[in-house]
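User: Please predict structures.

Assistant: First:
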Amino acid sequence: MTEVVPIRVVDAAPRPGWSQLVLTGRVTVGCAALFHQTALQVCAGGANVSVSCTAAEYLDASAIQILLCLRRELHRAGKKCEVSVSDALKASLRAAGL
């Protein structure tokens, strides 16, 4: 059985000056190291970042923490971070400050 990786960076960014990070399925502590490394790479790229969680079923506390840190670091660098989510995740992310 092939394991689905719930984190990926879209090579063809939808807007110039933006990178897109896509989260799908269940993003849990089991993939936190991959998510953290990917977030660091995207942040170091120097672009604004769009994070799509529209296909994510679940984000645990580690995933939310990484999103919050990504947003903080991008803002410190003068960059924007936009997060789009499904209706199912909106309440959880609002409670976390996203």
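Second:
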Amino acid sequence: MSPNTHPIKSYSAGSVIFKGGFFYHSDSSVLFSGSASIDKKGTSCSHSVGYLIAFGSSRIYDAKVAGAVDKIGMIEEDVLAFLGGYLYHRHCTIVVGE
């Protein structure tokens, strides 16, 4: 069995369905934690509606610019999904630092 490399561990390999999260699922995970102080916060999100329309950006760079963060202290990802992500899916990257 291969290791789970998905940034949101509970969101991969269908495990969400078995936890009762098929209709609604929300989770977050810290991807990186550094030594910079946490004074500023920036968020960037990408969205998908019905697997037909996608918009936005969840790039680390965009979150960094949105929060005017120069030195990254922590990177977090946040996921929200309805109907297993088929109806609506949001993936946000949150950058905090100084």
